[in-house]
Design goal:
Helix 1 packs across helix 2. Strands 23-24-22-21-26-29-30 form a seven-stranded mixed beta sheet, sandwiched between helices. A five-stranded parallel beta sheet has the order 8-13-16-1-17. A three-stranded antiparallel beta sheet has the order 3-2-7, with helices on one face. The chain has 795 residues and is of the alpha/beta class. Strand 5 and strand 6 form a beta hairpin. It is elongated.
């Protein structure tokens, strides 16, 4: 196996070649109309918004800051540019059922008109109806009714008085009513005079008075009927006068709303109710002044729930607080005399009402964390209607008597914005989710890199710079931003599409350029990058300080047995950094067991445990095909006090095992990272840049010897986007980076011995890495067989 050579400085970064650009600064670049690299997402948005079938709502997924909201908003704005504004919606009184307000749909802008027209109608009625009851015609007709019933009473009384006089009885009309008195010779008798009459005459008069009194009682009994009839005649007169007045005033409205049958029916109901309740429009006293704002006329108000008069097209609503009431609307109450009262004018819209006929954008995590909001949203989408219900009914509590507004038909596209994990969880655990949100809009996190894509990314940078009114970026500054974007994704052949982070970098670079600069140069960009890292790298500094003070033991030179410098990546929020970690192993005669101490102490994850099992399989397959694997070994991450997960240290662990088994010293000037399979092939890992820089920083602060370096998987070379100081150290021969494809190449570098090749019998030369390991395993197998044959203890 040929000796590995360290990577050249040019291989340590996929630099942006500014010479391929034909511009001097970003002001010379044309801004982009759409975000770069999101063709898949834009296609899904276009399909979801054009598909008019039920259930084709959108779930927009991607990491925070990738530009989901910005891209979605621009796509929706382009979609609604040529659309008509949706209908207005009003709630009005249902006079036959006051607790069930009626919903009215009107063309955009006509809701305002109806509200104004009905309010003006009430104002006009307040003036016209009292005036109608004060005119001469009404007074004349009212006097006629009154005179008619007065005459009827007088004629009846006169006839009864004539009949009584014929029988010598006088009918007297007093202020307190009618009374009877006896007559004799045309003279009204006083009680003494009546008593002085003879017995027969008194008897006759008493009989006559009794009969007349009975007739008078009958006549008086008819008077309430006459009064009721008179009141009915007055009511009919009032109704006729009111109806004539209302008809004259409402006729124009009926003509204006002939094209809206539901509104026409409502106006007819207003007409009938106003006629029926004409007295409400007349002051109850001389001091009372009525207006349309008086609570007695609330029943005639129009609650304009959704007003789209100013809407240029279909509405696009971004809801930042989608709780239950903000989604479906609410019914408010007011306190009156210690009681909570409500009416249809206190119905308030939710975002579903405001976005009806257009698009509603919701943050899925906010909807899911608000009580009852998710169920309310699904119920509205399933039923294609918005039904306002008090929140207490959602929990099965009867609560106070409230309104039951008529549901409003719902025609809407809902776009949920959230993480991918929530999409897959909802898909798996909510059976309704898949039927309601059929369109997945999956945002790309990275952009494949090429010369053309670098230019496209430069235009993206220019677009953000122009939108945010930042100073133009020089060509070198744009190249530095492109290299930062490659480093952010940990891949020199891809670029980050995290728009939020890119925008932050541009704004901070504009700040660091200084107030006197006319452009942003590469130095300003680098200072912004360094400042971002410095603000959050205190944990890295403390960890590295502990290593430099030997509180955490890491060797960067010398030789040790069964001890290898592994490399780990630590995550602190969205900031990650690398640090070396010591991996050690022990080996002795045994039965082929490799103990993972991290796993045994519940500090190792499943993936790490899998990696250790692969090591056992590799040892058995390579060195024990025809004999038992007579080794008992253990592995541990020294001074590790937290969870260990992942298999990126399995190459370092295998090297420590081979060192322990073969009694081979390992060069501590190297740190190793990489995953290994059962055939000894080194596999790619993540965080390669941070890992290299973590070991480089320790070596630099202790003093670089020129022998130190890092061994990485060969398949990770394309991911390298290392810092300038690392590249300079490599160029000066002070630091080395090797890329290995097999564990034999790694062991050659660590031990300084050749790996060795097996002969026809599968045996390795003595002075090779594999020869040392194989020889030791042969010895242990022989010892084990000896003990087994002699009956001694065998582990």
């Amino acid at each position: 196996m040929s000796e590995l050579k360290p990577l050249d400085p040019q291989q340590l970064i996929h630099a942006c070649d500014g010479g391929c650009f034909d511009f001097d600064d970003s002001s010379q670049l044309e801004a982009m109309s759409a975000i770069v690299g999101q063709e898949r997402a834009l296609e899904a948005i276009d399909f979801g918004t054009r598909m008019q079938r039920s259930g084709y709502n959108l779930y927009v997924m991607g990491s925070t800051g990738v530009g989901k909201h910005w891209t979605l908003e621009r796509a929706l704005q382009a979609r609604v540019a040529d659309t008509a504004a949706p209908s207005d919606w009003c709630y009005v009184a249902a006079f036959a059922a006051p607790d069930r307000p009626q919903a009215l749909e009107l063309p955009a802008g006509r809701g305002r008109e109806l509200r104004h027209d009905v309010q003006q109608l009430v104002e006009d009625l307040l003036n016209a109806i009292p005036a109608a009851f004060q005119n001469d015609e009404y007074r004349r007709r009212a006097q006629e009714i009154q005179d008619e019933f007065k005459q009827r009473e007088e004629e009846t009384a006169e006839a009864l008085a004539h009949k009584a006089s014929e029988r010598n009885i006088a009918l007297l009309h007093t202020p307190t009513g009618y009374s009877l008195a006896p007559l004799h010779d045309g003279k009204m008798l006083s009680p003494p005079e009546f008593d002085a009459l003879d017995k027969d005459e008194r008897q006759r008069l008493e009989t006559a008075m009794g009969e007349i009194k009975e007739e008078l009682r009958k006549v008086l009994g008819r008077i309430p009927l006459w009064q009721r009839e008179m009141r009915q005649r007055f009511q009919a007169l009032d109704r006729d006068v009111t109806q004539l007045t209302v008809d004259q005033l409402i006729h124009g409205l009926l003509e204006r709303y002939q094209d809206l049958p539901e509104v026409l029916a409502y106006l007819q109901a207003v007409r009938a109710d106003a006629v029926e309740n004409a007295a409400a429009f007349r002051p109850q006293g001389e001091s009372e002044v009525l207006s349309a704002e008086n609570p007695r006329f609330t029943r005639y108000r129009v609650n304009l729930l959704v007003d789209n008069a100013e809407c240029a097209g279909a509405p696009i609503v971004f809801a930042d607080n989608p709780n239950y009431q903000n989604l479906v609307g609410r019914i408010e109450h007011i306190a009156r005399m210690g009681m909570l009262m409500t009416d249809f004018t206190l119905i308030k819209p939710g975002v579903l009402h405001k976005a009806n006929g257009g698009y509603l954008v919701l943050d899925v995590i906010k909807v899911l964390t608000q009580p009852f909001a998710w169920d309310a949203l699904k119920r509205a989408l399933n039923g294609n209607e918005i039904k306002i219900e008090p929140l207490e009914r959602m929990v099965g509590f009867a609560g106070t008597v409230s309104l039951e507004p008529e549901p409003i038909p719902l025609q809407i596209k809902v776009a949920l914005v959230g993480e991918r994990l929530l999409y897959y969880l909802l898909k798996a655990y909510d059976p309704e989710f898949g039927a309601l949100f059929k369109v997945a809009v999956d945002f790309e996190e990275e952009l494949p890199r090429s010369a053309d894509q670098d230019l496209l990314y430069a235009r993206l940078i220019a677009s953000l710079q122009q939108q945010q009114a930042l100073r133009p970026l020089q060509r070198a500054a744009i190249c530095r931003v492109i290299e930062w974007a490659g480093r952010r994704v940990g891949d020199g052949e891809r670029l980050s599409l995290h728009i939020g982070s890119l925008l932050d970098l541009l704004q901070e670079a504009d700040y660091f350029a200084g107030s006197d600069a006319r452009q942003i140069d590469a130095d300003a960009v680098q200072r912004a990058i360094a400042a971002q890292e410095h603000r959050v790298d205190q944990l890295r500094e403390r960890l590295h300080e502990a290593i430099l003070r030997d509180q955490i033991m890491i060797d960067t030179d010398g030789w040790q047995l069964a001890q290898v410098n592994g490399l780990a990546v630590l995550q602190a929020g969205d900031y990650s950094f690398g640090s070396p970690i010591r991996i050690s192993a022990t080996a002795r005669l045994g039965n082929g067991e490799v103990v993972d101490i991290e796993r045994e102490t519940n500090l190792g994850g499943d993936i790490h445990a899998k990696g250790v099992l692969i090591l056992s399989a590799y040892l058995a397959a390579r060195y024990a095909r025809h004999q038992p694997l007579s080794v008992s070994a253990s592995l541990v991450f020294e001074q590790s006090y937290g969870m260990v997960e992942g298999d990126s240290a399995s190459v370092a662990e295998l090297c420590a095992l081979l060192s322990a088994i073969g009694d081979l010293s390992v060069n501590q000037a190297f740190a190793v990272t990489g995953s290994v399979n059962q055939h000894g092939e080194v596999q790619a890992i993540g965080g390669v840049n941070e890992k290299i820089e973590g070991f480089f920083d320790i070596c630099s602060r202790r003093g670089r010897t020129g022998q130190q370096g890092v061994i990485i998987p060969r398949s990770n070379v394309e991911n390298l986007m290392l810092r300038a100081d690392v590249r300079q150290a490599v160029a000066d021969g002070e630091f080395r980076i090797f890329a290995a494809a097999h564990i034999d190449e790694v062991m050659q570098l660590l031990t300084g011995l050749p790996a060795g090749h097996p002969d026809a019998n599968g045996l390795y030369a003595a002075n090779t890495v594999n020869g040392h390991v194989q020889s030791r395993l042969f010895e242990w197998t022989a010892v084990r067989q000896h003990y087994s044959a002699s009956g001694g203890p065998v582990q």
